[in-house]
Design brief:
Oligomer: heterodimer
Number of domains of chain B: 3
Number of helices of chain A: 7
CATH superfamily of chain A: Pyruvate-ferredoxin oxidoreductase, PFOR, domain III
Number of strands of chain A: 6
Largest sheet of chain B: 6 strands, mixed
Number of domains of chain A: 1
CATH architecture of chain A: 3-Layer(aba) Sandwich
CATH topology of chain A: Pyruvate-ferredoxin Oxidoreductase, domain 3
CATH class of chain A: Alpha Beta
Strand content of chain B: 15-25%
Strand order of the largest sheet of chain B: 2-3-4-6-5-11
Chain lengths: 188, 530
Amino acid sequence: MNKDIIFCGVGGQGVLSVASLFINAANDVGLHVKQTEIHGMAQRGGAVTSQVRVSDDPIHSPIIALGTADFIVASEPMEALRQVSFLAKEGCIISSMTPMKNIEYPDIEEVHGQIKDFKNNKLIDTAKICEEISNLRAANIILLGSLVAELNIEGLSDAIQTRIKIAFAKKGEKIVESNLLGFAKGLE
Amino acid sequence: MKNTQMLLGDEAIALAAIHSGMSAAYSYPGTPSTEIVETIQREVKNDPDLDVICAWSINEKVAMEEGCGASMIGKRALIIMKHVGLNVAADPFMNMAMTGTSGGLVICVADDPSMHSSQNEQDSRFFSEFAKILCLEPVDSQECYDMTMQAFELSEQFKTPVMIRLTTRVAHSRTGVILSENKQDKKSISLPTDFKNWTLLPCNARPQYVALLEKQKDLQVYANTYELNEINIVPGAQKGVVVGGLAYPYFKECLSELKASHVRVCTYPIPDEKIKKLINAVDELYVIEEGYPLIENQLYRLIHETGKTLTIHGRNDGTFPMAGELTPDVVRKGFGLTINEEGVYPLSSLVKGRPPQLCKGCPHADTYNALNDVLKGHEQERLVFSDIGCYTLGAYPPYEAIHSCVCMGASVSMAKAAGENGLKYSVAVLGDSTFEHSGITPLLEGVSKKVPFTVIILDNARIAMTGGQERIMSEEQFIPFILGTGIDEKHVRLIKPIPKNHEENVQVIKEECEYPGPSVIVARRVCIQK
């Protein structure tokens, strides 16, 4: 088993944090993992990506080759489209529907339409689920749930829940619970 | 995989230095090197018993010299900077190869090929070669950890500083690391008994240089025996590959499709004997390295020494592009292997650029709005020289408020020169930390020579672009320090950049721009990220 995943979004959306949570959980279940990210100027509302590779076998390159990624996990729909050159033909886009309009933004219906044109796609109304679970910052955790459901790696779901508990412990029981709930919603 | 931690290359270097008994880390922040000191600071905060000095330095030159001082009294020290920082620190760097070291001294330099967040993609390996010191080049976090531990030992063994060369993808990739159980204690003070090495008068420097040249033989022997400089001769393979830095994992990924012998290079000096063995075994030679063609240009001599005739395929002949970082696709293409281009989904025309921008509510935006109003209508007689920091984003719309960004501190020097050469409105705009780093000396010049120019210091009390590190001076020190240059205190103005002060701030900036002498405006409001 090896899976190549691109996490993407806009600076400030927590793309790097969710990627980091994922790789730590993957490491916990004994997989080989490599993750690369671009910081620096990207922090200031620019496009942000983190490439993640997990495998049963040792991994060489930290970077994913064009046309080979199994998943794009996008915190923002236009950012999903920015990364499609990395996606394998049978790859899957998992994206939030909610746009981040800090630029002159294209028609959102058209953006959604183009994502739906991909054979494998999961366009998720994260804003709606966030309201249901009363945590407006859980979008990435919901997307992560959706990714884990697709990956079907033994023990990974439990490992991620453990990591969620660690990552949000400082923010209190309520935030931990709502993130676990968001993750479960994503898994569905 | 038990006990494996996922660590950034930067984090692995920090932990290795602590586990090597480092007493002090000296650094100025710069992507992608910043997380090294941040990790050390985090470890010290979690365990005050560690007692490692790890406050930020004022600039890279000072950091380099501080490391030199710590080493001279026998302590182990780590010096960290991004590639362009080494330009600032080049003077002590070159001379520390001459003095040699006492306590182990490791200089970690992070290059940024493809310029993800830098103004150039210079290759620091050339600096290690220039100074004639040993350089190690890791490709993942485990190697970052192991090589940093080795580097401290090697620095004491060879009595020279040792460079660790990082690139963005190594510094900012998380890969699994198993930490050493063999942690060393810090060294106690041990003073040199002979000061000649450390006092580079010409009469001392000449024998020191001869000694440095002598060390080259030892370093060369070491390179040829270094285990990770692996050689693999495949019987019958016509292709030979010399592969350095992050090219190595990309090469490994296509190895099954290539019948090729190879030598991996992760030390500089390069393992010349191993490479000559490879040259003797093959009919064509490829060289892939992350950065400028450094190994490649040395291969001509090695081929000459073997008496063979071989063509080199590398960056010089266009097999791999001269600019930009390597990727798995670039490496495959260079070897003529198929890449997935036909199968690649095209970029939709819907996708718009999303450049980084000033945060909503950023104080710099208010200062730029005021400055733009002041200079409106004076387009033929004004320039705004800017500098390295968040505020460089003022070059983008809607501000388009600045006209240059060259290197740390250049805004003040350039504005001073433009002012004394007759430009009517010559304005420098730079951050408080950039001012501390390299803006003070040209300001002192401009004030002493009574040059008509205006320096606007965007004082957000942080090194914001790299994540909000603290600057050196306290708020109380800042303006008295500027007054200490002898500048007329009537022309040192403090403004608060908020929208409701716009008219007032326009007036202050206008008055100082019209004043035919040196003036400083401190636009003070704390970064909204902190």
